[in-house]
Design a protein that fits this description.
Oligomer: single chain
Protein name: RIB43A domain with coiled-coils 2
Family: Belongs to the RIB43A family.
Largest sheet: none
Coiled coil: 217-244
Number of helices: 7
Structural class: mainly alpha
Radius of gyration: 68 Å
Distance between the termini: 90 Å
InterPro entries: RIB43A
Subunit structure: Microtubule inner protein component of sperm flagellar doublet microtubules.
Length: 303
């Protein structure tokens, strides 16, 4: 039994190996065919390119030839051909001179940039100097204006002082003239009886004027005390009014809170009573206590 199974397994493996080899051979043939076809297509493409170049890309049609005279190279003699400059094909004989010109042009550009930078720095320096000079001029002008203002104030002060001195001198002169006119030529007993006392030199106020001054000062002191007392009384009254207002507001707030509490209690008790009444009026469906009024609630509208 085992031998037969082993033989069957060997035959199956052999068949699988043969199928694999057959597939490999088939794929190899297909690959060879594809490779040969690709090579053939490549040769055909290269041949077509060569034919196109031979037909449409002749040397006389290139850029090196003169478009107005494509046969110029054919017409060129061998002697003229020998006069062409030696060197490799496509080499520029003026490359050295061109590089020299490029270096000179680069040097000129650098010199121009340096000169522009120098001019810009010089211009910036000039602007800074102008700005500094303008600041100095403004400071000098401010100092000049300040000194002018001080001189003007000084002159005004001197003028005011001179005016005051002149007014004082004029007043003193008028008082002297008034005293000279008011002096009696005939001396009285009172004047003569007090030795060393000159009537014109006594500048004290008479007793009546001193009494008036003292009374006026007392009146001012009393008026000031009265104003202070009134202000103090007004402040005390305002404080009392504020305290009364605060106390009244607190009492009103407490009363309002008490009323709200009472209303809440009354509302709660009313709700409890209504709930009990509703519960008593509600039919007990579970127990089957349903009367005719329960059915009369249905079909009472068009809906």
């Amino acid at each position: 039994m085992q031998i037969k199974e082993k033989e069957k397994q060997e035959e199956a493996a052999k068949e699988e190996q043969n199928a694999y080899h057959a597939d490999m051979l088939h794929y190899s043939k297909v690959a060879c065919l594809l490779q040969s076809r690709e090579a053939k297509e490549k040769r055909v493409m290269e041949k077509a390119i060569v034919d196109y170049r031979l037909q449409y890309q002749q040397p006389r049609c290139q850029q090196e030839y003169d478009l107005t005279d494509p046969d110029h190279c054919r017409k060129t003699d061998l002697g003229d051909a020998q006069m062409m400059p030696p060197g490799l094909l496509g080499e520029d004989p003026d490359s050295e001179s061109r590089r020299q010109r490029q270096r000179e042009q680069l040097r000129e550009w650098l010199i121009q940039q340096q000169s522009e930078l120098a001019a810009e720095r010089h211009q910036r320096k000039i602007e800074e100097q102008r700005y500094d000079q303008s600041r100095v001029d403004m400071d000098n002008k401010a100092l000049q204006l300040q000194s002018t203002e001080m001189e003007r104030r000084k002159a005004a002060t001197l003028a005011t002082k001179e005016y005051n001195l002149a007014k004082i001198e004029e007043k003193r002169h008028q008082e002297e003239e008034h005293n000279d006119e008011g002096v009696d030529v005939e001396p009285t007993l009172g004047m003569v009886g007090v030795p060393g006392l000159c009537p014109s030199s006594d500048r004290r106020a008479p007793p009546e004027s001193l009494q008036h001054i003292i009374q006026f000062q007392k009146y001012q002191i009393e008026e000031k005390k009265r104003v202070e007392q009134e202000r103090k009384r007004e402040e005390e009254q305002n404080d009392r009014v504020r305290l009364d207002s605060a106390r009244t507001a607190l009492l009103i707030e407490r009363q309002q809170a008490r009323l709200n509490k009472q209303l809440r209690r009354h509302l709660d008790s009313t709700n409890v009573k209504l709930a009990e009444i509703h519960k008593q009026q509600k039919p007990d469906i579970e127990r089957g206590c349903i009367d005719d009024s329960f059915f009369s609630k249905f079909n009472t509208c068009s809906r």
